Each structure stands twice: as structure tokens, then as C-alpha cells.
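Supplementary Methods. Inverse-folding protocol.

Structures were first reduced to a C-alpha cell string of length 318. This string, shown here, constituted the complete conditioning input.
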């Protein structure tokens, strides 16, 4: 191989690797580049395509740290959401001039799925997983998300953050203060009105038995339809500044960025909790059966009730 060909191969490899790593977290990119640098020392024994293929394999492996472990959801985790917020904050600071709108062009949205416990305890974890997948599909590809992406031209990064908690990082060219309420209402309405009735068969003997143990089997009408719902809490970047002293001299920039990140998550979570409380109070008026399932469903209660029944039988037969 001539020196010219070798240099051309290096340029080709660097171009491909740069494209592969574009937009990925810096620590991930650094790990992949370090390995690629090692393979470069073994050229021409290793061909460009071989090194590039290995870089791709390593990238997928490194990305596991940023993905939710429930593969059927196909979503990033909280760590990646934090990275996207930090990336956006750094981009704003790096601009020559900042506008007020910049502080309201980034939002953290917190979701808490209602109904998962009922699905798990009545229909088993398979039913719970179907509920989680349905909710993930709404966040990833649903009407509200498409509206955000296609009409508002926003970047939407969804995340699954353990159990029934999910999130979104929104960023884009508009002032989101004008859209916060509508965004929350659209997601809550879409989830509540998406058909989830097929996820629980109230005619199944095991489901009926669990309902009897909770004392609510007789109160469920034949035409009852199970629904999922979600609480929503949203925090804009500018709102996090009320909790973070960004001007403290002794703090490193990365620490301040992390504090802003933490504040955005905390505020969104607090608002989601308030929304959840208000929604459940309203649900007791509009759909008391569903509210009862949300509130009274407990695997521990079911287990305890079963044990009480067994003990009662033992006492009667003794």
C-alpha cells in the first residue's frame, strides 16, 4: 500500500466514524474514538471496513448505558435525557448573544402512568408490559408527538425512567411558554382516550377472583372499559433558574449545568404529582369504577385477602 492510499484510507475512516458518532454523548464518542485510534495503529492489517464495523459494534454496546433495559419499549433512559438537557444549556451559553426566548426553548416533561398497577395485579406482568408498550408508542409516535415534531418543529427525545415513569425533553425554535398547557392537555387527553380495554378481560376467572377479594367485583358493570391515563408535569429551562444560583463563583460550570438539570427534573416531577392528585379527585366523579381500580388495586392486599380466606376456612373446618 502506498502512503497516498494509506492517507486516503485514514480520511475515509475518520469521515465514516465522525458520521457514526454525530450527536452522541461525548463520553460515548471518546470511548469509541479511543478504540478506533488503537485499530489505526494496526493498519493496513485491518481494513477500513473492518475498523468501521467494529466501531459500529462498540457504539451499540456503549449506547446500552443510555437505553432503558426494557427492550420492548425502544426508548432512551433518564441518563440520556439529562445529557440532552445539558447539551442544550451548553449550546445556549456558547452563543455570542442570548435572548430571553432561549431560556424557554427547552422543556422537561414528566409523565406518571396511571393504571399499570391494576394491569400487573389483575392481568399479570404480561398485561402490564402491554400497557407500558402502548404508552411508549403514544410518546414515541402518537398524535401529540407528531404535532410537536411536524407542526411546531420541535426536537422530541423520549425516555423511560423505571416502572411507570417516563419523560420527554423538548427543544426548538419557539417560546414554549405559549404551549406548555396545551402540550400537557394533549398528552393527557390522548392517553385517556386511547383504547386499552383489551388489556384486561374482566370475564377471566382469575381476574374476577381478584376483584372479589377487593370487594368490588359486583360494582363493575358489563360494559365497563378499562383505561390508562397519565399525569403530566412540565418545567421550562428558565424556571429552573429560580432554584439554582448560576452566578456562584466557586462552582464549576459542569456542576451548575447539573444543578439546572436536577432542578428541571424536580420541578416537573412536583407538577406531575399535583396533576396526579387533582386528576384522581376528578376521576372519582367522572369514572368512579376506574378510580376505584387505580386506588384500591394492590397485590399485597389481594395476597392478604387470600390468606384471610384460607385461615377462615381452616378455622371453620377445625
Amino acid at each position: 500500500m502506498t502512503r497516498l492510499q494509506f492517507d486516503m484510507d485514514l480520511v475515509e475512516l475518520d469521515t465514516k466514524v465522525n458520521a457514526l458518532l454525530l450527536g452522541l454523548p461525548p463520553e460515548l464518542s471518546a470511548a469509541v474514538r479511543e478504540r478506533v485510534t488503537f485499530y489505526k495503529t494496526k493498519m493496513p492489517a485491518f481494513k477500513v471496513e473492518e475498523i468501521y464495523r467494529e466501531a459500529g459494534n462498540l457504539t451499540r454496546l456503549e449506547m446500552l448505558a443510555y437505553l432503558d433495559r426494557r427492550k420492548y419499549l425502544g426508548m432512551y433512559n433518564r441518563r440520556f435525557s439529562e445529557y440532552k438537557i445539558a447539551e442544550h444549556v451548553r449550546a445556549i451559553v456558547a452563543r455570542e448573544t442570548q435572548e430571553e426566548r432561549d431560556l424557554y426553548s427547552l422543556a422537561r416533561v414528566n409523565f406518571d402512568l396511571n393504571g399499570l398497577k391494576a394491569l400487573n395485579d389483575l392481568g399479570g406482568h404480561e398485561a402490564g408490559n402491554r400497557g407500558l408498550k402502548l404508552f411508549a408508542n403514544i410518546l414515541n409516535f402518537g398524535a401529540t408527538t407528531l404535532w410537536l415534531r411536524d407542526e411546531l418543529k420541535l426536537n422530541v427525545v423520549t425516555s423511560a425512567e423505571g416502572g411507570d415513569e417516563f419523560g420527554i425533553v423538548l427543544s426548538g425554535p419557539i417560546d414554549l411558554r405559549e404551549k406548555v398547557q396545551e402540550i400537557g392537555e394533549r398528552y393527557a387527553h390522548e392517553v385517556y382516550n386511547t383504547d386499552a380495554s383489551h388489556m384486561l378481560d374482566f370475564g377471566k376467572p382469575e381476574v374476577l377472583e381478584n376483584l372479589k377479594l377487593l370487594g368490588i367485583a359486583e360494582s363493575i358493570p358489563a360494559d365497563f372499559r378499562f383505561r390508562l391515563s397519565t399525569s403530566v408535569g412540565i418545567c421550562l429551562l428558565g424556571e429552573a433558574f429560580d432554584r439554582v444560583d448560576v452566578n456562584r463563583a466557586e462552582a464549576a460550570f459542569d456542576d451548575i449545568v447539573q444543578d439546572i438539570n436536577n432542578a428541571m427534573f424536580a420541578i416537573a416531577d412536583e407538577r406531575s404529582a399535583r396533576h396526579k392528585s387533582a386528576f384522581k379527585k376528578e376521576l372519582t366523579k367522572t369514572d368512579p369504577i376506574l378510580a376505584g381500580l387505580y386506588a384500591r388495586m394492590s397485590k399485597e392486599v389481594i395476597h392478604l385477602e387470600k390468606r384471610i380466606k384460607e385461615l377462615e376456612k381452616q378455622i371453620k373446618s377445625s
